[in-house]
Structure formats: structure tokens, C-alpha cells
Amino acid sequence: MSESLLKKEFKQSDVQRVRNLVNKDFTSSTKQQAGYSKTSQYHTEGDIWEENGKQWTIKNGIKQNITKLDRAKAATRIPLKCPKCSGSMNHRLHKKMFRIHGVCFECTLEYETSLREAGLYEQYEKQMMRNNMEGFLKDLELWVHDKVSEIDTFVTEQGDVEDWKHNRKKYEDDITKKVIEYSSLVRKRLE
Questions:
Q1: Per the structure, how many domains does the chain have?
Q2: Of 91, 92, 100, 116, whose CA is between 20 and 30 Å from 78?
Q3: Three-class SS string for 17-67?
């Protein structure tokens, strides 16, 4: 009676499942099924593919989507170690100098000291100040352009509301002309 009981308890799929487990083939199926089967794609480090309208990649073993801001995020990211001397970057001065020079504070000091020894520091300093002022002037011109283009009405100190929509072109040209004059005056002083 026990033999007939054993034959009834185990099906072919049960025996196949035990064989798969013994062979360490844990993902093999034991039955034929009908219906939807998803095709799996395997990707390796650095592969780029599109899925559901998004681009994906694998970085450091982690699946990540690729966005428009990836370059901006990489530009603002500060590493744990200095790329030049492999020193720690956990001090605020290291972080500030990395944003400016791409190395830690100590490496910046060494570089500037070598420039002083060679007699080139004053030229380097003037170039840094000139670059800072050029950046400021570009930002100023963009800011004025944005602000001028959004002006419609203006409230004076007395509380009067002036409508600038009708004479807008005249004011835009006047303000833009003054900013360009200021920028050219500053650029002449820098030279």
C-alpha cells in the first residue's frame, strides 16, 4: 500500500524540480505554461539602453537613469580625495579651492608658492581678477536683459503706478545702452 501511495504523491514536475535543485539549476521551469513571458535583457557596466522612454545605464553596479542634469551634478560634486595629492577633501577651504582650481587648498598653496618663486604670481593674480570681473559683467548683462524684458509696470516711491508697456522699447534700449557702456568702461580699465 505504501508503494502506491508514493506513486500518487510525486508528479513528474516534482521529480524534475528535485533534479533541478540537485544540479543547482534554481531558475529552470518544471512545467510548460501558456501566457505572457517577459524577455529579460542583461546589461553590463557602462551599457546604455532605452526603456519606457528613459535612458538607463549601469554605474558602479547600480542601474541609473541618464538625465539632462548629469553633467551639472558632476560639475558640482566634490571628490573625497584630492586628484593631485590624494589628501582628504573634508575641510571647507579644500572644497572652495576645488571649485576654483580643481585641487585641494594645500595643492593650490604649493602652486601659488611656485608662481611666487618664479616671479609670475602678480600676472596670475591679475588674470584671476580679470576672469572674475568678466564673469561678473556677463552675469550682469544677462540679469539686466532678463529684468528689462519682464518690466510692464513700475510703482514709484510716491505710490504712483507708471505704465511702461507703451514706451517699453525706449526704456529697454536706454537701460541696455547704459549697461553696455558700463561693461565697456570696466573692460577698458581691466586692460
A1: 1
A2: 116
A3: HHHHHHCCCCCCCCCCCCCCCCCCCCCCCCCEEEECCEEEEEECCEEEEEC
**Residue 65 near residue 54 (C-beta atoms within 8 A):** yes
Written as one letter, the residue type at 5 is L
Q: Which domain holds residue 133?
A: 122-190
Domain annotation covers residue 176? yes
Asked if residue 185 has pLDDT above 80, the reply is yes
| Assigned domain for 64 exists | no
Task: Say if residues 130 and 190 touch (Cβ distance below 8 Å).
Answer: yes
Which pairs with CB-CB distance under 8 Å and at least 24 residues apart come from 169-174? Answer: 172/148
Neighbours of 101 (CB within 10 A): 15
In whole angstroms, give the CA distance from residue 103 to residue 96.
9
Is 6 among the domain residues?
no
Which residues touch 113 (CB under 8 Å, ≥6 apart)?
none
State the average pLDDT over residues 66-82.
86
Rg value, the chain, Cα: 34
User: What mean pLDDT is predicted for residues 60-88?
Assistant: 87
> Would 88 be classed as within a structural domain?
no
Task: Please report which helix (H) or strand (E) contains residue 162, including its range.
Answer: strand 161-163
Neighbouring residues of 82: CB distance < 8 A, sequence distance ≥ 6:
88, 89, 94, 98, 103, 104, 106, 107
